[in-house]
Amino acid sequence: MEYSSFNNSLLSFLQASPTPFHATDSMRRALLAKGFVELFEADDWVIEEGKQYFVTRNESSLIAFTAPSLNFSQTGWRMIGAHTDSPCLKLKPNAQVDRFGYHQLGVEVYGGVLLHTWLDRDLSIAGRVTLKTDNGEIVSRLVDFKDPIAVVPNLAIHLNRGVNDGFSVNPQEEILPILCGVENEFDLHQLLISQLEAQYTDLSMASILDFELSLYDTQAPALVGLHQEYIASARLDNLLSCFVGLQSLLDSDSRCPSLLICTDHEEIGSLSACGANGPFLEDVLRRLTPNPEQYVQSIQRSMLVSADNAHALHPNYANKHDKNHAPAINKGAVIKVNANQRYATNSETASVYRDIAAEENYDVQCFVVRSDMGCGSTIGPITSGEIGVPTIDIGLPTFAMHSIRELAGSHDAYGLYKVLARFTQRTTLISRSN
């Protein structure tokens, strides 16, 4: 895929993926279009050599893999990992709030949100709704209002004179979106029914049973900057890595068994049935290699590239970085290192990645957090700790991580796609004497 086509497809993917459910559905559709066969965990699996497969869990996590050979214990896997979730505001179960003449929504903060960035934005609602049909079935459907239907207005400076000296947002009282005035009737369940009926004309609903809904910014993703070298969008952390991994897998020549795993709930610790700290990946791999000894052999002949955004040096806040480990946007993907295993990179996995990047003439940077600051983490140490796979943590340099609108480099995204596509073709990793 060429540079311009890649970035246009990336922007379309970001726009179509306001929630983990929608991101997983977007990837599912792309895989089906490329001839991947959908598997279901409750069914028996028959895997055929030369074919390509995928499976989802909870409609918010996905594993896709190629099987050019079924001798996984000898070939191992070339794995790429990312996560589908992003910090956001989620609707509470009893979300309707009427205060001082306005219909509002009660929300809960999901993950490490930069709350002030959600103020004065044109917001919409998307997610999953579970309902009962007229014939008694319980089913789930995705919903996306797309239109800006909510807003959280800022407080005027005249009523908050010290706002520029220090600012915080109370998540219980001060971040509730306004939908409309109370002179207009509003019933959330009826609103959802109307939206679902518009999206699914063949669906006959008896009642809404429950929902998992999030707010999101309706401003479209865009290439920005004087030379359009930046990508500005919501949810770059970490849908950017999901898209790069997906395209790398789709465009691989399938020389080696390759696997993409995109899991939910990373932003809140990954401990769930469909998170990286759950059994999803191991369940799939053990079904593909049920013999215990061969399973261990397959893992030890594998490598995982855990791709999650990295902190670029911000020119206005340069003192937040170790000056010797200060990544720049559009200067290459970042190898993330931490002595306390917040990242899973080691010298061998880093060397493999550096070697592959050099083959693509693609620059590599390195990030280590300042020694007097705390460090975040990724799915890398979790996955490596769960199944024992050698792992490297990398990421694309990003500004404003966890803001409602983040900024990354368009050249970085395309370069990482090229490197990961070559990684899926790499037949040998680390040579070891017998």
TrEMBL record:
The keyword Protease applies. Its EC number is 3.4.11.-. It is an enzyme of class 3 (hydrolase). One of its GO terms (biological process) is proteolysis. One of its GO terms (molecular function) is aminopeptidase activity. It comes from the Bacteria. Belongs to the peptidase M18 family. This is M18 family aminopeptidase. It comes from Marinomonas transparens. The lineage of its organism: Bacteria, Pseudomonadati, Pseudomonadota, Gammaproteobacteria, Oceanospirillales.
